[in-house]
Amino acid sequence: MTVPSFQPLQGMSDLAAPEIYLWQEVEETARRILALYHVGEVRTPILEPTGLFVRSLGEGTDVVQKEMYTFEDRGGRQVSLRPEGTAGVIRFLAGQGDEAAGARVYYLGPMFRAERPQAGRRRQFHQLGVELIGPPNPAQDVEAVAMQQHLLNAWGLHGARIEINTRGLPDEQDAVSAGIRRALEPDAGRLCEDCRRRLLTNVLRVLDCKQEGCRALVDKLPPVTDFMGQESRAYLEEVKRLLALMELPVEINPRLVRGLDYYLHTIWEIKHPALGAQDALSGGGRYRIEWEGAVVEGVGFAAGLERILTALQQEKGHPAGTAQGRPVAWIVSQGAGTLEQNLVLAQTLRRRGVPCGLALDGRSVKAQMRAANRSGAAFAVIRGELEREKGLVVLKNMKDGTQEELELPALLERLLLATRAEVAST
Ligand code: HAM
């Protein structure tokens, strides 16, 4: 016999009240801030050809090697749930030809990575991502970092740290890997088992290792810029100069690497102490992606919204969605004859913008008052046969228990005022 399960798949979540109000708040703030930067929304499909991710993120990356949900669709095509948003957006923009030059877009939605679930690491998670299209330009990189910082502050986060580094140019990658490998080899025996393997396969991943022993060795490594040419170093210096000009509080982390192959020049990661081992709130950088012969260059970032919410709850002790979603009035019907009259009243109030609730199942007045209480409504509007005959309603203040009789126009006025006060306080 199978046990009924109401749980979603492992590593995935149902999002509902009250947390959903915090999600909506974070999303609305993001849309408001991004409009200030003249960045418009784009929505691309969640399912894409697998080849898009393999080619843009890189064949050897962890995301492509181990984390994609890949399957054959009914037409025998290899498709994958998107593990990140940049590749799909670039596919879309590559198809726009010249019109994509200078495009500035954002996206907000679910991403999928079949990782081992742990705190802060989900199999379905949500990203808010931004992509600014344009050839390498330190000023554009700094604009993206500033935008990212503005978003964090607008969400109410102040404890985050921005770490910056450079990936250099694509043709310097081999020299960087060889240099880091040479520097690590004498201590190879002190690396963890995974890193001893990474030394041969993907040495830059050693720089991300969370094991104490490996971190101690990584801290002593020369900065990656030691293995890069003058152009990359000068680019980083210009980025640093502009960051200082903009008074952006960033730290240069000379050993920061990012796990996706499309990056070049500026890369960054934003960390928050509330997040434990999975401490990246957001990551980004400059990239160059080729798709179907079109080359798209740009700079962008994506923030993990689950992690943003965790950090917010920790920093602000955020009372997730207490006020929102709460009706201002709950209409209570006394006697079967008033029910349909109250259905009309509720509709009138809602059309005028007053959030209100009522029960339509003819339950007792006592049960309806309990429902009014549970809903968190500020007022109960009670209307029985007697009041109906007099053309009145009873308005009960749920907080102090006081009651008064009102005519309908006065009721509407009172509830509209209460609605405005509620909106102003959230
Ligand atoms: P990423 O660093 O792979 O970059 O992901 C960005 C953010 O998504 C992370 O900092 C983290 O907050 C969140 N995230 C990633 N994996 C998970 C997970 N399994 N569970 C919860 N949150 C997660 C990108 O995806 C790039 N596309 C960013 C970018 C845009 N670069 C240029 N443009």
Outline the structure in words.
This protein has helices at residues 19-36, 50-57, 62-67, 86-94, 138-155, 173-184, 193-201, 212-219, 230-245, 305-316, 336-351, 365-375, 385-390, 408-425, and strands at residues 40-41, 47-49, 70-72, 78-81, 104-112, 124-133, 161-166, 250-252, 263-271, 280-291, 294-304, 329-334, 356-358, 379-384, 392-397, 403-407. The protein folds into two domains: 19-169 and 228-316, BirA Bifunctional Protein, domain 2 (2-Layer Sandwich), CATH 3.30.930; 329-425, Anticodon-binding domain (Rossmann fold). Strand 10 (280-291) and strand 11 (294-304) form a beta hairpin. It contains 14 helices and 16 strands. It has 426 residues and is an alpha+beta fold. It is 39% helix and 23% strand. The mean pLDDT is 93. The chain starts with 18 loop residues before the first helix and ends with a helix. It has an eight-stranded mixed beta sheet with strand order 1-5-6-11-10-9-7-8. The chain has a five-stranded mixed beta sheet with strand order 13-12-14-15-16, sandwiched between helices. It has a three-stranded antiparallel beta sheet with strand order 2-4-3. It binds histidyl-adenosine monophosphate (HAM). Histidyl-adenosine monophosphate binds at residues 84-86, 113, 115, 121-122, 125, 127, 129, 131, 280-285, 287, 300-302, 304, 306-307.
- State the separation between the terminal residues, measured CA to CA: 49 Å
Strand content: 15-25%
Main sheet? 8 strands, mixed
**Order of the strands making up the biggest sheet:** 1-5-6-11-10-9-7-8
The CATH topology name of the largest domain reads BirA Bifunctional Protein, domain 2
CATH architecture of the largest domain: 2-Layer Sandwich
Overall strand count: 16
